Automatic annotation (TrEMBL):
Cited InterPro entries: Bact_solute-bd_prot1, SBP
Source organism of the structure: Phytohabitans kaempferiae
UniProt name for this protein: ABC transporter substrate-binding protein
Length: 410
């Protein structure tokens, strides 16, 4: 209780000092110290403070392990920070009922007319509760030298082409390199990786209000995911197989565009130029909503207006373009990525193409989101069963569907 009391009595969220010469806005984030993400957040604050000389933004770090619990505690107690940042934490924050709807402000500003459709991922019960600043997506990373050695003339652009390319890489690689990189140990990555195949190939966890884990498109997608993952090095998490890609020991993977930063930092100078990015080979790509900003209900009207002006600053074209330059992400605002940047950083152009046909990561189900922790664990267990046994895919998916139905109605 003492720890909670200290947390709630901490800086920000209150109105004390608002009548003085300086107002301090409390802005905690788990991303402050991250290269790229932190740089953009600091740029937002610096630009805002230039036009608000009597306002100081206290942007500070809270570890991701603690961030969600701390913010939920503060929101629920009516002592929130002034600026609510979120990633996948958004749904937990929205569940407190303490996020201010942005609809009227967004309508008056016209911002949504200039925003990508993934902004809809932050609508709850018909209300826009956050503005997503950018989105991430999955691309094909490939070592062009290995593709040439295998006789693959271009990166795959269809599921069938992907299967064929990986088979050719497997035949050509021998002991020199692995044809495919994927998570092959129990890890949260297993949900994202398998989900990208399912949604990408037109399948779905939920269809028309029913669990559709055993529908033909979902089964076909999981079959391909399983086939390729079994060609990946066993027992590795995401960081480990990405290191193999960086080292020139993995030929291809279907991974997040954010991995480019890892490759830039970790691939040897003679390997990095060989690793290229191509659009996802599936009919659908997934838009993984990145950093979003919200206004909490439990602050004064004056502070709400200031936080809105901070959000408007984050929406400026020149600030939005930084997400592409620093994080290789798709900015929320359309038309802000300079052609020069897409030429200089090819992965940025790939991400822009991917986002054009991007669909949401999660099905349109409040129950799925509300129970995601348990659902994710159950799906991960099923994927590990697929990777470590010879049980028929349909048997595993039938069992999975029964377990998901026992967790919640779709």
């Amino acid at each position: 209780m003492a720890a909670v009391a200290m947390l709630l009595s901490g800086c920000g969220g209150g109105d004390s000092g608002d009548e003085g010469n300086e107002i301090v806005l409390d802005f905690p984030s788990w991303q402050v110290n991250e290269p790229g993400n932190g740089d953009v957040l600091k740029a937002i604050v610096a630009d805002f403070e230039k036009t608000h000389p009597n306002v100081k933004v206290n942007l500070y770090f809270v570890s991701n392990d603690d961030f969600q619990n701390q913010m939920v505690t503060r929101l629920s107690a009516g002592r929130p920070p002034d600026v609510i940042a979120s990633g996948n934490h958004f749904f937990a924050f929205a569940a407190t009922g303490q996020l201010e709807p942005l609809d009227e402000r967004l309508k008056s500003s016209g911002l949504l007319d200039q925003w990508r459709d993934f902004s809809k991922e932050r609508i709850i019960d018909g209300q826009q509760l956050a503005l997503p600043l950018h989105a991430l997506t999955r691309v094909i990373f490939y070592n062009e030298t290995f593709l040439q050695q295998a006789g693959v003339t271009a990166p795959p652009s269809t599921p069938e082409g992907l299967r064929d390319a990986v088979n050719k890489l497997g035949a050509a690689g021998g002991s020199n390199f692995n044809p495919w990189g994927a998570t092959t140990t129990s890890h949260s990555n297993l949900f994202g990786e398998s989900n990208s195949f399912i949604v990408g190939m037109g399948g779905a966890w939920i269809t028309d209000g029913r669990w559709s884990v055993t529908d033909p498109k979902t089964v076909a997608a999981v079959e391909l995911y399983r086939e390729l993952a079994k060609k990946a090095p066993p027992g590795l998490n995401g960081g480990q197989y990405r290191q193999l890609l960086a080292d020139g020991k993995v030929a291809m993977s279907h991974d997040g565009n954010w991995v480019q930063s890892f490759l830039d930092d970790n691939a040897p100078a003679d390997v990095l130029p060989k690793i290229q990015a191509a659009p996802s080979p599936f009919q659908n790509s997934i838009a993984l909503v990145g950093t979003s900003l919200s206004i909490p209900k439990g602050i004064s009207d004056e502070r709400k207006q200031l936080v809105w002006e901070l959000i408007e600053t984050a929406a400026k074209p020149e600030i939005q373009a930084l997400w592409a330059e620093k994080v290789y992400a798709a900015p929320g605002r359309v038309g802000v990525v300079p052609a020069e940047l897409a030429t200089r950083l090819p992965v940025v152009g790939v991400v822009e193409k991917n986002v054009e046909n991007a669909v949401p990561e999660f099905p349109p189900s409040d129950n799925f989101r509300a129970n995601f922790g348990e659902i994710e664990k159950t799906i991960i267990d099923a994927m590990m069963r697929l990777l470590t046994t010879d049980d028929p895919t349909m048997t595993v998916l039938t069992d999975l569907e029964k377990k998901l139905a026992a967790i919640t109605q779709p």
